[in-house]
Amino acid sequence: MTAEVIYGNVLAENLRLEMREEVDALKEQGIIPKLTVILIGDNPASKSYVRGKQKASSFVGVESNLIELPSDATEKYLLELIDTLNKDSQVHGILVQLPLPAQIQEQVIIEAIHPDKDVDGFHPVNIGRMLTGKDTFLPCTPFGIITMLKSKNIEIAGKNAVVIGRSNIVGKPVGQLLLNENATVTYCHSKTKNMEEHIKAADILIVAIGKAHFLKGEDIKPGAVVIDVGINRIEDGSLTGDVDFESAKETASYITPVPKGVGPMTITMLLHNTIKSAKRFHQ
Ligand code: GUN
User: Fold this and answer.
1) Which of 58, 114, 121, 170 would bridge with 139, disulfide CB 3.0–4.6 Å?
2) Whole-number pLDDT of residue 283
3) ipTM above 0.90, yes or no
4) pLDDT at residue 159, rounded to an integer
5) Is 160 helix (H, G, I), strand (E, B) or coil?
6) Is the beta carbon of 96 within 6 A of some atom in ligand 1?
7) Which residue, among 207, 216, 130, has the nearest Cα to 163 in the 3D structure?
């Protein structure tokens, strides 16, 4: 079997075109969706993600402003800034790019952003809403993954979904969203015993472990759906996923590439959340 490749960049582009029309219509009503991104320090990967977010925002007509702070910025300063943005009725979404420098506690910052402006979907209130299946901002990467599966009408209900990795940003929430779609979900992580058996039993595999070429074609069940969330820079400087794409595509039924897979969907769902927030504010 040769898998069908799910190109996230193509789906993302189509969704962004639809969003652009929606934003145009909102602007006619005087509503300008606005996202504020805060970037602290000069982590090259973070800078590159933020550039991508700004480019995509400008494409769909979402106003985005970037606030850059030095790497020695204090937690107090950042909290005051977030407080100002929480109170600014023109700002619909606030995103603090992670990771943060050591002097700033990530969870304190996440909880300082008002849940109604938390377009990342990281605030405990929004996580709780997601857990109970209520309308909320869904975390962007997991939301993008579910959108990719749905775009191909891939059945989720009743399937064995195995999530490799348990980060707060990807692994945990994507498992929850798959559960909300009635999958039977297994999480695998560094302490999992017999991981190979879990992987072999998976109908849907989400690989978010951060190890280049961790998953090979021979590891998976024929016909499995493979979603690669990894972004690893290898020796030659190129980007590669957590899945050995060439071998896995011979066994899988659907597979996502890296790049052009999950990455562009993450940014697209961020824009979706920002537009959703703008609409909510003006209801
Ligand atoms: N760093 C890596 N991914 C993300 C994300 O989705 N949101 C934020 N705020 N920071 C990140």
Assistant:
1) 121
2) 80
3) yes
4) 98
5) strand
6) yes
7) 207
Check 34, 97, 219, 249 and give the catalytic one: 97
Residue 99 has a pLDDT of 96
* Farthest-apart Cα atoms in the chain, separation: 57
Our answer on whether the CB atom of 169 is closer than 6 Å to any ligand 1 atom is yes
Decide whether any atom of ligand 1 lies within 6 Å of the 203 Cβ. no
Identified catalytic residue from 34, 117, 118, 120: 120
120 lines ligand 1 (CB under 6 A): yes
CB 98 near ligand 1, within 6 Å: yes
Q: Is 107 a catalytic residue?
A: no
**What pLDDT digit, counting tens, does each position of 124-137 carry?**
999 999 999 999 99
Q: Are residues 160 and 102 in the same domain?
A: no
Whether 46 is covered by a domain: the verdict is yes
| Low pLDDT (below 50) residues in the chain | none
- The residue whose CA has the least distance to atom 3 of ligand 1 is 98
In 3-state terms, the chain is what percent helix, strand and coil (to 5)?
45, 15, 40
pTM surpassing 0.95?
Answer: yes
Residue 173 lies in a domain: yes
Residue 71's pLDDT is: 98
What CATH number should be reported for the domain holding residue 85?
3.40.50.10860
Residues 256, 145 share a domain: yes
Cα end-to-end distance, the chain, whole Å: 49
CATH code for the domain in which residue 187 is found: 3.40.50.720
| Matching residue, tokens 């204090």 | 74
pLDDT, residue 1, reads 75
Asked if 173 and 224 sit in the same domain, the reply is: yes
242 part of the active site: no
Give Cα 61 to chain centroid, integer Å: 20
Report which ligand 1 atom has the smallest distance to the Cα of 120.
7
Domain limits for position 79: 30-114
Q: Identify the pLDDT of residue 282.
A: 86
